[in-house]
Design brief:
Rossmann fold; binds adenosine-5'-diphosphate; D-amino Acid Aminotransferase, Chain A, domain 1; alpha+beta; 3 domains; four-stranded parallel beta sheet; five-stranded antiparallel beta sheet; Dna Ligase, domain 1; 301 residues
Length: 301
């Protein structure tokens, strides 16, 4: 097969591992920077141009689109879909997963466990907003944040009100969530490939940190997940329509709750902790599923 990886970082661990795993299985792989693609949308034959060349002949495309380039990256992916190339994850699903609010609404519609969450843009009544999620302590999140930046723990009502007012002043969209204290600064990352949890790790925030993100100094270890956690992760991936994703769960007193579904989950932490060939499993999945036009939306989304 001829596989395109949409990635801006050919040297990044995840990109390198996917290239390695695909080449080891005899596939031809090309890493393409989506931002450098330009497209002809008007023709009956949609095309993608790249550094003066017309891209063609690809059987599958693996999107590794960074959060900051979601808009253009998903447009390029959609163009591949219109050309009939099989996307590992579809552009619509990636767009969904990048919008925290939309994701939570989709998950809640399916009855998937979530932290009690309120959202607001310019709340006139901060006290009432806080009351709707059960009062302080609460976690306040900027909708545009990633890797733990823009996630604030407000332990008291006064702290929560001032943070909400500050974000309000910046005209930011925010989420206000019950603080799952019992998670103890840890979360569970379930790695999903084709509707199965193929690996799971626990990420523990550094001492005194409630955020478990590895980018915030957290560490990863192996974990055995429960049947309820497995089912929650699988349902969350399905609700988002993602073939490959990382579902982040917190262990709460009211069962597993989904924090986030990541459509470009990193491979380094999970391969390191589990010693599994996750990249190989992703390529295996593509081998089984990459047929022309085997997408739900064919770029129509
Ligand atoms: P990001 O998308 O920036 O990583 P998250 O919403 O995943 O932001 O939050 C980052 C981390 O903060 C989570 O992985 C989790 O460890 C912690 N966290 C987030 N929300 C809560 C919450 N409601 N209760 C307890 N911990 C939380």
């Amino acid at each position: 097969m001829k596989i395109a990886i949409l990635s801006r970082g050919p040297k990044l661990y995840s990109t390198r591992r996917l290239v390695e795993a695909a080449e080891a299985r005899g596939h031809e792989v090309r890493v393409i920077d989506a931002l450098r693609c330009y497209m002809n949308i008007n023709s009956v034959h949609p095309t993608i141009h790249y550094k003066g060349e017309v891209l063609s002949g690809f059987d599958a495309v693996i999107p590794r689109i960074g959060a900051s380039v979601t808009f253009y990256g998903t447009a390029v992916l959609r163009q591949f879909e219109m050309m009939g190339v099989y996307p590992l994850n579809e552009s619509v699903s990636i767009s969904r997963s990048r919008d925290k609010l939309r994701s939570l609404q989709l998950l809640s519609r399916r009855g998937i466990g979530l932290p009690v969450t309120g959202f607001a843009h310019s709340p006139d009544d901060v006290d009432d907003l806080l009351a709707t999620v059960g009062g302080a302590p609460v976690v306040i999140k900027l909708l545009e944040g990633t890797q733990g930046v823009g996630v604030v723990l407000a332990e008291t009502h006064a702290a929560a009100s001032s943070v909400i007012q500050a974000f309000n002043g910046l005209k930011a969209n925010i989420l206000v969530q019950e603080f799952i204290k019992e998670a103890g600064g840890a979360d569970i990352r379930c790695f999903i490939v084709g509707g199965k949890v193929i690996a799971a790790i626990k990420r523990q925030g550094k001492e005194g940190e409630f955020r478990s993100n590895l980018h915030q100094g957290g560490s990863a270890s192996l974990v055995k997940i429960t049947a309820a956690e497995r089912a929650t992760a699988i349902n969350a991936a399905k609700a988002m329509g993602l073939n490959v994703c990382g579902v982040d769960l917190l262990r709460s007193n009211h069962g597993p709750v989904v924090m986030e579904v990541n459509s470009s989950p990193g491979l380094e932490g999970i391969e390191g902790a589990t010693q599994k060939d996750i990249a190989g499993m992703v390529i295996d999945f593509i081998e089984k599923n990459a047929k022309p036009n085997n997408t739900r939306t064919k770029g129509k989304g």
